[in-house]
Amino acid sequence: TLYGKIHMSVSYIDSDANSGITNYEEVNLASNSSRVGVKGSEDLGNGMKLGYLMEWSVGMEGTKGDWGTRNRYVTLGGGFGTVLFGKVDTPMKSLGRKVDLFGERAGDTRNLVNNAGYVDMRAENAMAYITPNLSGFNATLAYVTDVLSTAGVGDNYADNNDFDAFSGSAIYNNGPILVGGAYQQHSLSDLSATAKDEKSWRLAGSYKIAGAKLLAGYTNVGNGKGTNKNDYDVWQIGGAYSFGNNTVKAQYSDKSEGVKKSKDGAALWAIGFEHKMSKRTMVYVDYGMLNN
Question: Are 184 and 119 in contact (CB under 8 A)?
């Protein structure tokens, strides 16, 4: 199956001056995780199935390289569940994506979460096990042998898995209710004599009733990006209401201060309106404000 997604936006950005920051305004044309991919599977008999997926990002605005690597992996599935090998979003990231109303848009909560940590990774060198769906419940456990590009280090660290990571999640998703939790540990202590392993955990949930959807999430990070005592949390709350082909939505996210007295806390809120022109085509307008 050949598949893809084109997501482009025209943005007006107005940044107020602050200490050490120059005031600026600009109009920006963006390609927001536009992608193309191919996926398929083969029935091996006895309830076994082999699958694969290869996905590339595409710079639709033309200012960046045309191709970039996204998820790509092979899977082997059966009554026991599914095992996966390749490059894939970690269970921690996958849970967060389920409760963000502005994913890949201006109000994306990752603007706060990933500012000082490696929480929402797409990890290379990953091996994962996914349980079967048990009446709406499933769990995922992943091990990453080395997270070189995320840690920003070279291949000289690759021989003894200095920068490995563990990530796992448990999610109940049945009817109008979704509730989940995730934990992740990223080995960064070999970056320097003072670096520490980054540890994070996340709780998330959503509830649908008629045309309305409410959601909330909480993420706690310890030693963000390996920095000792860079401990912070990010929480969010949001809601959306759909009527006909239209949806209105609003979301608020807040990041606490990390290293004591660092003044790196931030708040982000966004509102949006979207209209489905067909099953495949949607237009929207968003307004967001970040106070940091």
Answer: yes
Q: Is the distance from CB of 271 to CB of 249 less than 8 angstroms?
A: yes
- Number of other CB atoms surrounding residue 137 within 10 Å: 15
Residue 36 near residue 4, CB atoms below 8 Å = yes
pLDDT at 150: 55
List pLDDT tens digits, range 158-185.
456 668 899 999 999 999 999 999 999 9
Closest to 134 in 3D by CA, of 81, 181, 66, 73: 81
108: its two tokens: 């994306």
Neighbouring C-beta atoms of residue 289, cutoff 10 Å: 12
What are the pLDDT digits (tens) for 113-163? 987 678 998 998 999 999 999 999 999 999 998 876 555 554 545 456 668
Q: Which helix (H) or strand (E) holds 44?
A: strand 35-45
Nearby residues of 222 by Cβ (< 8 Å), 6 or more positions away: 196, 198, 199, 200, 231
Higher pLDDT among residues 86 and 116, named by residue: 86
CB atoms within 10 A of CB 207: 15
Contact 144, 126 (CB under 8 A): yes
Query: Do 82 and 74 form a contact (C-beta atoms < 8 A)?
Result: no
Tokens of 134: 């048990």
